Amino acid sequence: RVGTVAGRVGVRRFLVAGPLLMAASLVWFARLPVDSTPWKAALEDPVTLIPPVSVLVDILPYALLFGLGISLVVAPLTSTLMGSVAGRYSGLASAINNSISRVGQPLLGAVIFIVVSASYYGSLGSAAGIDTGDPDVRKAFQPLNPPPAEASAAQAAAANLASIEAFHLAMYLCAGLLVAGAAVAWYGLREPSASGGTVAAVATTDTGVRTPDARPASSAATMSATTTCTVTTPGSNVDPTTPAA
Length: 245
Prior knowledge:
Layout: H1 2-9, H2 12-30, H3 53-71, H4 74-83, H5 90-128, H6 135-140, H7 153-188, E1 201-204, E2 210-213, H8 222-225
Antiparallel strand pairs: 1-2
């Protein structure tokens, strides 16, 4: 239904609102406190199937808002890409869209992990006086993971705080990228004309003559305009953000 509505009213507002909602959800998730209670559900213990209040306050709003935001992005993004090229290039455009969606996310995840690791070990080294340049220390203390059992109370507290700070940094970084994507979509896309038709884009025919093309106009930056961020947390390997090609 999102794709149908976007086809009538224009994709621009969807490709702006979607990333902004996703950014807002990540900012909310970034407020996750250190003492937030995890939901350790077990089928053999019915009492544990009731989520703690912290899950309803810290996790559920993020999940709902992020899901709503990405649902506004996937179909309009694909239709915008496919509608901005001449029909004879549709196969190539689809392949590029699919490749970017597959390669872009792991690449961004690697960059974010570098940022997270730098933040974690920097904070850990200054707070606990640990030599984080030692490979054995880095093997024992890893970002977003529980500290080793042999760590002292001060080291464990410093490691937990460093993980939280690194996690917050990752959330804010992704939120910033999503806001940047919304800005690119706002300035890089044009709405349908007032008469209800589409804004004429310029396409190149087989003869090399540039002629009007009745597809919605968009810029090549649209692919980066709706960059989505995924954050892998312990115990989760689900990636809900892969757009349909």
